[in-house]
Amino acid sequence: MGDSVTTVVVGAGHAGLAASHFLRERGVDHVVLERGQVGNSWRTERWDSLRLLTPNWLSRLPGQDYDGDDPDGYMTMAEVVAFIERFAAGAPVRTGVNVTSVRRTDEGFAVDDLRCRSVVIASGACNVPVVPDFGDLGVHQVTPFDYHNPDKLPDGGVLVVGASATGVQLAAELRAAGRHVVLSVGEHTRMPRRHRDRDVLWWMHETGLWAQRYDEVDDLDRARRLPSPQLAGGLEVDLNTLTDAGVELVGRLATVRDGVALFSGGLRNVCSLADLKANRMLAGFDEWAGLTDRVPLEPTRVPAKPRLRLDLGGGEIGTIVWATGFRPDYSWLDLPVLDDRGRLRHDGGVTDIPGLYALGLPVLRRRRSTFLHGIEDDARYVVDHLIRTSRGTFDQSVSEAR
């Protein structure tokens, strides 16, 4: 029989530490288990030049605001790690503990040899890169987890697959380093860095769009699967700036056949749709501000005849960067709590297994759930639910009012 605590939190990133913050505040004994170091993903699974997408003035955690001298800047990864490390002070974190099993017991759960009454899963939403299986393509292949900087890649051109925040940032960096870059563009979310001389995230924050609750979102399943917006920390990066820099745009990668990458012919359509949605969002900001004139984005400039084929064995491309998304890893969960796509079933962080909770997932309780400043409301609610349910006093209406 191993040790026991009331609650085990899996993951010592900002979400798990936020849970610990409120558990400590409410006097609940608990432990936070972390496979690596505090903020491990920020330390080991990011490329060298990455900066936080949110400006510093908006980067905060429960009880800890940004207090540096550059409120309009964007943190480097080293600065994010330092920010999270400071937040971890006083939290009961056990590092270097790789959880391999969580199962039910008569009293609650067994997390490996550790017994507890409740578990908070805060292990992240981006544990495993999603890469289509085309087998050996004869070129070097990397995911954002493997990519560090252009110098680490073999010589030659680069095919970047995926045009979310990661894809456009890596395409821009590689092109700036002098590489020939082809960017495969599927469905994407266009978002300008600034609108009317303010950071676009200021508009998201002030209009309340980011605070929209999960149960008020029309298509929640889709909202939770949307590509991350085409943003970069402090830089304007979209398909037009990439085109200006010399990046070649092609359509979505449909398949690879006999060593030839085949692209969809729908590039113009997906770009038009992204432009439409971006302008609709900006118009909503203007209406909130009482502004009647409009400042539409320049339409995405799509090549007249984007090529549909690329011979991967022809020497033009030396590396493929798969910026095709991520998925969480729940292989250690021995509980019937996943849907047929392997996603965690939950209602605002509360699973249908009593005592099992989640934090840090997209649109968990608010649109801002996965961002640093978005964790406070989510963690407070989940911990409140956990405590009140364990005491048999949970009242949904009271908790929702918090």
TrEMBL record:
The keyword Hydrolase does not apply. It holds the Pfam family Pyr_redox_3. Keywords: Oxidoreductase. InterPro entries: Auxin_biosynth/cation_transpt, FAD/NAD-bd_sf. It comes from the Bacteria. The keyword Heme does not apply. This is NAD(P)-binding domain-containing protein. It comes from Actinoplanes sichuanensis. The lineage of its organism: Bacteria, Bacillati, Actinomycetota, Actinomycetes, Micromonosporales.
